[in-house]
Amino acid sequence: DPSALPESEVHSGMAELFLGRLHEARQRLEALRPRDLRYFKGSYDVRYLADTIVLVESVLSQVQWLMGFPDTAVRTANAAIARARPARHHLSLNNALSYACPVFYWSGRYEECGRHVALLDEHVVRHGLVVRRPVAMFYGAAMACLQGDASEGLDRLQRAIEEFRRLNLLARMPYYLAGLAEFLTQHGRPKDADAASRAAVELAGAQHEDWCRPEVLRIRASVLASQGRAEEVELLLVESMALAERTGALSWRLRAANDLARLWRARSRADDARAMLQPIFGEFREGFSTRDLVTSAELLRSL
Question: Exposed site from 55, 68, 98, 174, fewest CB < 10 Å?
Answer without folding.
Answer: 98
